[in-house]
Write a structure and sequence with these properties.
The structure is a homotetramer. By secondary structure, the first copy, chain A, is mainly alpha-helical. Chain A has 2 domains: about 1-55, Arc Repressor Mutant, subunit A, CATH 1.10.10; about 55-190, Tetracycline Repressor, domain 2. Chain A has helices spanning about 1-25, 35-40, 45-50, 55-80, 85-100, 100-115, 120-145, 150-170, 175-190. The first copy, chain A, is elongated and about 65 Å long. Chains C and D meet through helix 6, helix 7, helix 8 and helix 9 of C and helix 6, helix 7, helix 8 and helix 9 of D. Chain A binds a DNA duplex through helix 1 and helix 3.
DNA sequence: GATGAATGAGTTTTCATTCAT
DNA sequence: AATGAATGAAAACTCATTCAT
């Protein structure tokens, strides 16, 4: 019984989350009102508040979900990276996967800005950001074990993802991800940096 | 007389722009109301409307200003890049200059998101983004004329600037810009990519 | 079985009443929601409604309880007033007892104001108020049988109780109840009022 | 010019204050919404907020006004108390004046309860309450200079005012203020209290 | 040029109450 | 007896914008 009720709750929370995320990604976090969300989910404002006692809570949960999603994507990549594919091919796939999730990306951005003026949210992003860096590093260590600067490379990859994401969202021409991947992999394999 | 008035107008517009930009960078574009701005500039709301017929216009002007500022920064770097300094040193300076302008960066981000749901703004950003890429490429061609993939490098630099900016704004540990610069320069100088 | 259920019902009603009274005294009748109460009693809102079909009913019951409590306190005093203690000493005890029940007093006040805009509640308060006056008069007739103006004194005592209660609740300095008691008793014993 | 504008503001604030006070006295502070007030004053909700940025501010101002009014009433009594009227007559007038202002009284009560859970308001009431005690004492010293316990009497008067006010508001029978006044004055004049 | 008063549509939030289970 | 999901009406509050002066 307890389980059943919780199930309903969970399903509803998910419906709300899903729809809210969609709306926010389409029009931006602060351009979406709770009325909009309630309307879209076809529940009353009261019900929305039954599940989320404040807009902030809702946004936080969406951010959670969005971050988990990205983490999972990167994790999957790391797992797959055992396979026998060329490193640059694999790297290209990371970029691709993340950028393809355009909608995810957009809300990701919105939420990050939200985080700039919200401490609890910011802390979560920091945690997760560090985790992503680690995951990417793990992946690199697997696909380019002989890479000399995998840690640097991981940082560059993660950082440039944001730039490429932004380019994509703005509708600029698609960055040549295959060449970029090749470039970065070669860099890592090239003779040591003279100190 | 016409000139005189225009002068006052310009000065006042600048005061408004300057203050509004500061507020928006501190708390985000959509968290700042026109009342807040009017109060901070110490003019009445009516006066604010005299200079800016809508909030959108004001934001657009701030975006212009912010973009020009960034363009100028990159341009200065390109100009300076003739001097006799090692390429990685110079590259580090670009990163540094841009990231140091933390406050500029923050509003830059806010505005970019604003642009995602505002066509006129988005178009301006696209134009400017392309210009930045060109400028950076120019610079690279000067400091690493023998670089084989300056175009790719320019894209990676510009893209990763956004990621590093975000890291900085979130208060994460400072990225090791000197190593990153070295890494990227070496990459560009390393033996050709086998096609 | 019917009895058993009634017992549970009574116990539950009392738990609700007790907790609700505490909350309302702490933050005021209209600042407490039924959710707050349900949460504090650790029952569901539905259950709360099972016992009290409306917030009004609940408040009414709390008022009943609160009034009964005060009545009882005064009654106890009247009963005790046979004992061989000086009248002013006894009078001081009344004041003291009532004022000491600070928490009771606070909710008493809140409820009285509630009564101002609720006819059924107001009527109950009026009834009870008259009863208190009578009870106090009874007590006075016992401890100061030679008092000439016991009825007036009763009214003054009851009225000033409210003022002193308010003082106490506001955190003002404690009124010198012993001197006040002495003063009032002496007044009652002093040579007749020339008409 | 500056004056003219402030004048309008003042007049409007007064209109709002006056109407809001009336509504609150009729139905209680927490039963009145800002919509109700706006409607009654025939301005928009926005305008109401232009003058009072929060409900709390409005209530605070009404409380201020209400307290000032009571202070003034007591002060006037003190001033008048030089005249050649019997002390009990004068005392009766105080009671009368205050109780007659039924509406003032009701809101006074509501506000006092509001003060119990609002520190800034409570502080103001405490200040004012002390002032009232002083004023009443001044008056007594004038009309009953030979009174032995004017300070005690002042406290009793102030305290019982609240009780009588409550009685009046609840619609109970009018307290016999003339007899009560006589009683209290005689008490004060009667032979000294044996310690 | 400049002001501040006024607005109304919108936002987030609260809450007593109902009801199927 | 008991629950918690759902509701809708109304609350407090925000804000870009208009306008008479």
């Amino acid at each position: 019984m307890g389980r059943k009720e919780k199930k309903t709750t969970k399903i509803n929370k998910e419906r709300i989350l899903f729809t809210a995320a969609r709306l926010m990604k389409e029009r931006g976090v602060s351009n979406i009102s709770l009325s909009d969300i309630a309307k879209a989910v076809k529940i009353s404002k009261g019900t929305l508040y039954y599940y989320y006692p404040s807009k902030h809570d809702l946004v936080f949960d969406i951010a959670e979900q969005s971050m988990n999603h990205m983490t999972q994507k990167i994790f999957q990549w790391v797992e797959k990276s055992k396979e026998d594919v060329s490193p640059e091919e694999i790297l290209k796939i990371v970029f691709d996967t993340i950028l393809r999730a355009k909608s995810r990306g957009q809300i990701h951005f919105y939420l990050m800005l939200e985080a700039l003026s919200d401490d609890s949210l910011r802390e979560r992003f920091c945690q997760e950001y560090a985790k992503w860096k680690e995951l990417i590093l793990d992946g690199l260590n697997r696909i380019i074990p002989q890479g000399k600067e995998n840690s640097l490379l991981a940082q560059i990859i993660l950082a440039s993802i944001y730039g490429f994401l932004l380019q994509t969202l703005l509708g600029l021409e698609k960055p040549p991800l295959d060449q970029i991947s090749k470039f970065l992999v070669m860099a890592d394999l090239s003779p040591s940096l003279p100190e």
